[in-house]
Description:
Distance between the termini: 29 Å
Radius of gyration: 22 Å
Mean pLDDT: 87
CATH topology of the largest domain: Alkaline Phosphatase, subunit A
Shape: globular
CATH architecture of the largest domain: 3-Layer(aba) Sandwich
Oligomer: single chain
Largest sheet: 8 strands, mixed
CATH class of the largest domain: Alpha Beta
Amino acid sequence: MSFVAVPGPFGAAPTRRELLRLGLPALLTAGSARAATRSDGFGQAKSVLVVFASGGQSQFETYDPKPAAPEEIRGAFGSIPTTIPGLRFCEHLPKLAALAHRFALVRSVSHDDLDHGSAIYASLTGKFHARKSSNPDPKPTDFPTAGAIVKRVRPATHIPYTAVHVNGPLLIPEKIAPGLFGGFLGRGFDPHLVGDPTDERLLTGGLEQHADISVERLADRSALLGKLDANRYPSLADRDGLAGEAFGILRSAPARAAFDLAREPAAVRDRYGRHRSGQACLLARRLVEAGVPWVTAFFNANIRGQDDLPHDTEAYGWDTHNDIFDAMKTHLLPRFDATMSVLLEDLRARGLLETTLVIALGEFGRAPKVAIEKNFAGSSPGRKHWGGCYSVMFAGAGVTPGAVYGSSDRIGAYPSDKPVSPLDLTATLYHALGIDPAGHFLDSTNRPSIISEGSPITGLWR
Length: 462
């Protein structure tokens, strides 16, 4: 059993107690792992940027169309060529088709979890929920979200935030999804949550350090807080983690500036799109640029808000049971195509793509057969939940551009080659950061847990 060392807060050296608890060999192993960079992608990334298309993004209407299949399978849309010979995308992704040589695809992701909550949990934690195909509430006993584990085993040393969730919390569709929090690590390991990124008061309000509070006075306040009631939070670790993060932000001008979208030129904000999805991806880029190791941007904050607000694109999620073709053509695909293409090009132009692993995914795909579902709103056909096979995009951090890993069968129902699971996707992200997925971390009671039960998709690097 191997353990990953836990540095002190904001880069402080481990204490004598931490050294004794973790053991010197483990510290040396973790240190060498951080320094390693291998041809299989290990340690290639300084940051991970997750773009989560929640609701279940259809593989047929994105990266894996089936133009030769019968109409009830291929659907209403045509396909177009990309910059990679033989690779075709849905006709409504022209910008991404023109950038296919910049990213890689995995077309063989597969699992058997068929409801949003538990499938989101698997996608964001890298561990299947005990109640598959369900919509459980978040619980303190949940496995930690991936960003919380990174915060545990590799806390940022140069910026107060290790993990940030943007445009959340994710709703399924009326309650908060599981898998977003610190789970049994405690609230102190929750990723920092940013809500609607188009609300600039929400982004920067309260982050300013008052002019009449000096650095010394701020330090005194921090020390005083440490002496106050430890019962403010369920555990001391929770209190110390959250308070340390808050004071760290006040002390860090770059951290505060990263959240200020008003610093971006108006033309850049316009290119991303002046909507929640676009500004979420722009803010995610700014956070990566500031050095945040793990950023999750929820492309849509609700898996399915269109039932209540059918004319509001902001409300739409990818849960397209009925009316899939109108929803995709009018509301979902144009925005995704425009914003994702700008994000990839912006990261590349700024030199960030070399050290940032980008993944765009949802919790599952959609069913091969187009049909009306009587229990859902809408009068035209759609596609039901389908975990049997779906597609995921990877880019950056040395991933082979233009590569396609795995394939689906002739009707897009199951992998025909190189199947992978959501657990493997998460393991790949850890691997790229230089964190051994097979390593272990300790909770607040010193109980060990494996970082990931998946295997990295090293074939993305070649």
